Amino acid sequence: MGKDTQRGRLVATAAEVFHARGYAATGVREVAGEAGVPHGSLTNHFRSKEALGLAALDHYAERLEATMAATLANPDLAPRERLEAYFDRIEALLDDGGFRRGCLVVDLAAEIPPHSEAIRIRLAEVMSRQSGAFEEVLAAMLAGRDGGRAGDLGAFLMAAWQGTMLRVKVERSAQPLRRFRRVLAREYPPRAAGA
Fold first, then answer.
1. pLDDT of the residue at 113
2. What is the dotted CATH code of the domain comprising 50-187?
């Protein structure tokens, strides 16, 4: 196995295992074993668990941001449809996992900040980009009638969504998603044609 292939496998496996079991509860030997890579090879690629955690977070964030780009930034959809497409896609992923997992970004945010300044900073960057994607679609939805509120609304929507991800994981149910989407539909109903 090539060095880049081995590193990529370690990163993808770490993202998966941290997501499934938690960062603190997962040892680097466990990640190496699940990746089918000798523990010594892991230490050749990552000087610490924190470095592996950063790489895993980046890997997960890239996949999530690709989903956001394909949905929230899709110019072929009306702004309201972009939001629906994003939430549809995430709900399908959660359903496939039996609603046992929420979002790795949210999980790490709940677990890491007191222990790792580097991961805390990276989480803040990832959340800022995600909030910005919501801000852009909300600004387009509210075109000319948001009174400069899109930034605050994007951050608020992101926080509500993150809370929903936690509830999904705790309740192991689609109910928090459905509740979130009902409120979203009431607060941001589709605009009537010509409105």
1. 67
2. 1.10.357.10
